[in-house]
Amino acid sequence: MGVSREDIVTQMRDALMVSDPELDTSIGTPLRKILDAVGGSLANAYVENHLLSYAYDIDSKNDADLDAFTRLFGIARIPARRAIGRVTFSRTGNLTATVFIPVGTEITSSLDSSIVVQAVTGATMMPGTTSVTVAVQAVTAGPEGNLGAGMASQITSPIQGVNSVVNPSALTGGTSRETDSELRERWKKTVFRSLAGTEQMYLGVALDDGDCYAASVVGSSRTRSEILQVPVSGNIVTQITDARYIYSSPVQVVKADGTPLVKDYDYTWIPSNPPQIAKLSGSFPAAGELLTVDYQYLPTVSRNDPATGITNRVDIFTGGTRAQAAQASLVFRSAKKWQTVSTIDLYTGHWLRADLTRPEALNVFVPLPFGPIVTVPASMTIGATTYGLATKTNPLGTVANGITYAYQIVHEDTVNGWTPMSRFGLEWHRTYLPADGTSFAVGSAGDYTYNEVPASVQDAVNRWRLVGIDAQVHQAKQRWLRFSLGVMYTASSTGSAASVQAAIRTALSDYLNRMGFNSNVQVSDVLAVIHQVPGVDNCRLLHGGDVIGYSSANPNASVVGIQQIAPTGAPDSAALVSYVEAASGRARDIYFRDDELPVLGAVVFKTLARNSFGVL
After folding, report:
1. For position 362, what pLDDT does the model report?
2. Residue 505 CB partners (closer than 8 Å, separation 6+)
3. Does 194 map to a domain?
4. Is it true that the peptide bond before 231 is cis, omega within 30 degrees of 0?
5. Do residues 437 and 444 lie in contact, with contact meaning Cβ atoms separated by under 8 Å?
6. pLDDT tens digits, 379-438
7. Phi-psi category of residue 418: left, alpha or beta, with phi > 0 → left and psi -120 to 50 → alpha
8. Coil, helix or strand at residue 442
9. 371 with 295, same domain?
10. Where are the beta strands (DSSP E) in 447-589?
11. Strands 403-412 and 385-389: what pairing?
12. Per-residue confidence (pLDDT) for residue 54, from 0 to 100
């Protein structure tokens, strides 16, 4: 802050009174005039210095002042995002009519009618078809739109012929507006360092897309820091699980008091996967002491290969979806079939279905031109047969109500996958194939959509990358998590548990959406988030003791702890992966790779009271 002329003059007079008490500094004297002139100049200098410091001090800025400042550098605050997902319109009874689902059809939450989502594409329910699924997005941006599975179930304006609507899986992606602290941090990471070819430049370019809410940049190496405890015997083994390559240097091992250990004197660095530290000297820290280990590694999602000299590749992973309608005219060919041999092109282990399972050997691959794919038609008539998109109710290879459920979405799942230029399309069941050479169209009704965000970011990156750098933009892979909670409600909220549960879903969704890539979901953080929800008295994650017949041999069969479920799975769908200790079913922390983002898939609630909260 500034200092007034009077304050400065007073300070100088006081100093002169000490050094020379006989000097006359009263008003009107020549010395006082000199002091007044000097004080005025110094006061102006104080003001100018304060203004200059404030003008370039981002930590002193807030709200609109902060927005105006960051815009000078081409960085804008990330706005609140709207949640996206899919809903399924269904009918019973008369199946002979053709039912049209208009673009913009509004559906509201069963718990809160103020939360509205809209259909972003139209759809047609053909005769004989009982349901159709369309993409939707929340009307209002924010985490409130992240409705749990089954919660979007009220059509605001009834559609003749439609009996019900529901979202089979949770709506996701709705986030709050970027906070001041988050904007300051992003500005510091990018401004003045946004030089072509740097990690910060790629990160800034990706986040500049309005629908990209998170990004991860993987180059030829990454630094990892771990705090490890010295074991009683044997080597110290690092806990990295997503390394493709470990570098032999640089490595730094530091004791808890800050004293560094000397490589090849105190210890040997073994660049295995995972890497290990072997003790050499007698001065090595004793068992139980803590060490901080910093080393370089290459993540498994990178396309680089230091062993063969390939280090010029940069992979950018983007979170966020912008559905873009597409059309394709195809000729059916049955020559491309998946196999279980890892060396062939269509190896089943290198592909992933929308429900996160692998395609079956001998099923046929039909490529589509635009991707990564968001939606495909719920049904297609080819020749005299109506084929349908496989669902949990009607799996691949089943026939029901005159529809042959013969295809589903697949993506290439390698380090080259999930990009606008990689491979994606339909897996067609080997038993139900159209005749070779048959022409058919996909997307004529606007029901074939792809994610435009990776392509948009790729175009922006191509304008900035350095010559010789191979930069590729990928869509992030989402891990849909189901939380099984035991909750005690406060006395005042016992009768309104549904609203408290909705608030818990919103809080968990917002927490996960802010986690980002290469992060981890810690059980303690999850419980802290839930505890902060008004109406929650106490909470814990359910475990094996809460489930009758829990089997440690098959934790996925029980609803416990934190589990990964299929994106299209209903709340009661079987878990794909259980992040629990098998013996007890108690939840454990979850770690995500550089290409993965956590998403709220579902929340299962069990009401508890003081006398039942601790029962095993």
Report:
1. 96
2. 146, 147, 148, 600, 603
3. no
4. no
5. no
6. 999 988 999 999 888 889 999 989 999 999 999 999 999 999 999 999 999 999 999 999
7. left
8. strand
9. no
10. 449-451, 470-475, 477-489, 520-521, 536-541, 562-565, 577-579
11. parallel
12. 46
Separation CA 170–CA 188 (nearest Å): 34
* Nearest-angstrom CA–CA distance, 67 and 320: 23
Per-residue pLDDT band for 569 (boundaries 50, 70, 90) equals: very low
* Domain co-membership, 482 together with 602: yes
Distance from C-alpha of 161 to C-alpha of 213, rounded to nearest angstrom: 38
CA–chain centroid gap for 473, Å, is 15
Amino acid residing at 73: F
Place of tokens 């909470």: 539
Burial of 576 (0-12, 13-18, 19+ CB in 10 A): middle
16-40 average pLDDT score = 76
Distance from the Cα of residue 496 to its chain's centroid: 31
Higher-confidence residue of 19 and 509: namely 509
Q: Which residues have CB under 8 Å from 99's CB, separation 6+? A: 89, 91, 124, 125, 132, 159, 160, 161, 162
The last residue of a domain, from among 449, 468, 495? 449
DSSP 99: E
For 29-45, the pLDDT digits (tens) are: 877 777 777 777 766 66
pLDDT at residue 51 greater than cutoff 50: no
Whole-number average pLDDT of the chain: 86
Position 208 in a domain: no
β partners of residue 328: 442
Tokens of 525: 């953080």
Distance (Å) of CA 121 to CA 134, 135, 355, 374:
7, 6, 22, 12
**pLDDT value of position 574:** 65
The answer to whether 531 and 490 are in contact (CB under 8 A) is no
Q: Does residue 313 sit within a domain?
A: no
- Tell me how far the alpha carbon of residue 367 is from its chain's centroid: 27
- Tell whether 348 and 404 lie within a shared domain: yes
Question: In the structure encoding, which two tokens stand for residue 436, read together?
Answer: 């070779």
Same domain, yes or no, for 481 and 559? yes
Query: Do residue 482 and residue 568 come from a single domain?
Result: yes
Residues 332, 270 share a domain: no
Q: List pLDDT tens digits, range 332-350.
A: 999 999 999 999 989 999 9
Mean pLDDT calculated for residue range 509-531: 90
For residue 42, the enclosing domain spans 5-55
- Summarised one tens digit per residue, pLDDT across range 486-516 is 999 998 776 788 889 989 998 998 898 888 8
Whether 278 is in a domain gets the answer yes
pTM over 0.85, yes/no: no
Q: How far is CA 59 from CA 47, 71, 184, in A?
A: 19, 15, 7
Cα–Cα dist 534/504, whole Å: 9
Q: Total domain count for the chain? A: 5
Is 49 in the same domain as 92? Answer: no
